[in-house]
């Protein structure tokens, strides 16, 4: 680098620190303003230096804008583009509107010229059209006058035809009404015949059903008799079988006892034989041993002493075993006794529960039947015989109303919801008595009690009263009410019939009215002579109830009179309600009660069976304990005997020491006797064993025979019970059959009468139907004739109407032609003015079109200018965007390279400092630095080669770099420091030179 360049760079570097923050702005560059002329001169000098440096390095280009200048340029371009866009949009809108106006003006001009041509044509043909239309109008007037006359004539003819049609129609309608009445009469007669035919068929069917019911009832009656006879026969046979079974059980019991005793005796004999055999064997073995001892020449005293001690030890062990066996036997005997007591108790409980289940089943089997009998079934169960017969036997009394009421009750049904014998209705009736007692208590009167018989007669009286609409006389003293709801538990109906019986009549009675016809109900309620009462309720739906509502009744009497009836009970109202309710609930729950009882019986039977099995096990255990105790006793006795014999042998051996020869002889004789005794004992044991086994088998067979006999005895008892139940059921079946026969006979009588009545009514209805058919046929023929006349009159009327229509149409057509001709004449009245107006409109439209064309041309020119301006602005914007992007990229690359150079320089400096460890090296480095500083001052700086210390340098001094930095600051932020290589000679490269690239 030349000295001049170095000096220039140094000067620029000094100024760069002041001018560095400034930057150039795109094409509208505003140079930074210095505070004084010296600063301005420095900037100018720096710019000149930049130009000189660019020329000197032959690599300087025209300085481009910085990123800030590029951004400003881009922003200005964007603003220009937006203005151009707005101008283009406005021009496009104006062009569009001008085009629309031009098209509309063109359309208006075309229409105006077409109108003008039409007006010209009409003006040309006006004379001819007017003449033709005038002639047509005159002819139309003549045609209209002729048509008007024809219309008048046609109207007169139509009016005459209408009168004839109306007359014929009226005649037809009158006859049609008669025919309709006759048809209705025939239809009604036919319906009556159909109804009476159905009624007769129903009556015949009822007659057949009644006869079948009687036949079934009679068959049931015979079956009940046969059932009773069979039950009697079966009962007698069952009793005989039971007696025989009892005797057989007694016989088998005795046989078993005898067999058990014999088996026990034989077993004891066998035990004794076994013991005797064992004793004989022991004696034989001792004798054999004694002979053996004597023959051996050994006195054997030591061995005999050992045997004696062993026998004593065995005796002690046997006695201990016997004590344990005796205790086990005592425990087993107690367990057997306890199990026997438990089995006996559980067997008794099982039998009791089985009997209870049997009774519950019988009750459940008859529950529905008893409930179907209503309160009559209650009386029968409670033994109120008279009350039961009063409700079920139509011959029980002589009062005809009473007997008829019994028949009516059977027909209605004892458990019918509307029947006075329905349990719910009986309870409602009892509450009437309870309410009466509450009211009597307010007057200090005692409570009335309830009696079975008066309750039964009240039921009959209420039913009969509901059918005849008055007192029946079945109960001598009674209150009867119709229409009152008797359900006093209803909070809205606390008075029921007492609203009249008590409250209304009491008010009159308290005023002194004692006429029984006016206050009799109240007087019956407060009568002190009567002490019992009955009551009944008949439902609104009961067949034959003439009131169509509830009927309530209370009967009054004395307990002395009604208490005489067979089985009739007298009790308080509450007790009666409670007893009746309990009876009803028990029957309703009979099925469930039976299931519970049967379940309890089954459980008890299982418990009894388990207890019996436990007893058998305990008995077997006791027998085993007995055998063990007996065996232990035998073993203990045998052990004692063994001790005794061992002691004897020992003693004899001691005594035999004096005479061995005689002792041997005696021992052999004793041996022979003991052997014979043992063989005899063995034979006796075998015989006893056979006899014991035979006796045990006989005892077992006797036990099996007793069990079979007991089972036969149980079956015989069941047969006796079944026969008794069958006999009891036969009695009930007989009573039910008799009642059914009575009801069926009454039903047959009614059915026979109904059939006869239905037949008579049917014949009368058929006769009426035949007459109605004849009458209807005649009226139907008259209607057909009248309709024919109507049809003829209608045809004439339609023809005249058609004539009138044609005349009216001819008149209308003539008038229309006249109006059309006049319209043509009128349409040409102003044809000259229409032509002038059309011409004026065409001229005005042409003028408007010329103006629209001119406006369209101007708008097109304006749009072309705006489009050109927009395209130029868009091109400027695109170019400025590219320049901005390039400037930002260059700045980023320059910054990156500067950072890398700084890091490299720092690393080299750090390495140099570490290398200069020695003091001499530091001094040498200082000297070299001083030399380089002097060289810089004189401008003699080498650009290539190696320094004195042997280190390579870049060839570009720091002063140059600093100077370039200052130049960059003056040139602006858009300047980038670049490194390039240039060829110096073939042998190598010069070092990198620093340049300013825009």
UniProtKB/TrEMBL annotation:
Region Disordered, as annotated, extends over 95-291, 309-349
Keyword set includes Membrane: yes
At the top level, the lineage of the source is Bacteria
Question: Which chain regions cross the lipid bilayer?
Answer: 960-978
Keywords, in A-Z order: Coiled coil, Membrane, Signal, Transmembrane, Transmembrane helix
Q: Which residues form a coiled coil?
A: 67-94, 615-649, 720-768, 821-932
Q: Compositional bias of type Polar residues: which residue ranges?
A: 198-211
Write down the species: Bifidobacterium primatium
The answer on whether this UniProt entry bears the keyword rRNA processing reads no
Protein name per its UniProtKB record: Secretion protein
Question: Which InterPro entries does the annotation name?
Answer: CAP_sf
Specify the signal sequence span. Answer: 1-26
| Basic and acidic residues: compositionally biased ranges | 122-132, 169-185, 222-250, 259-291, 326-341
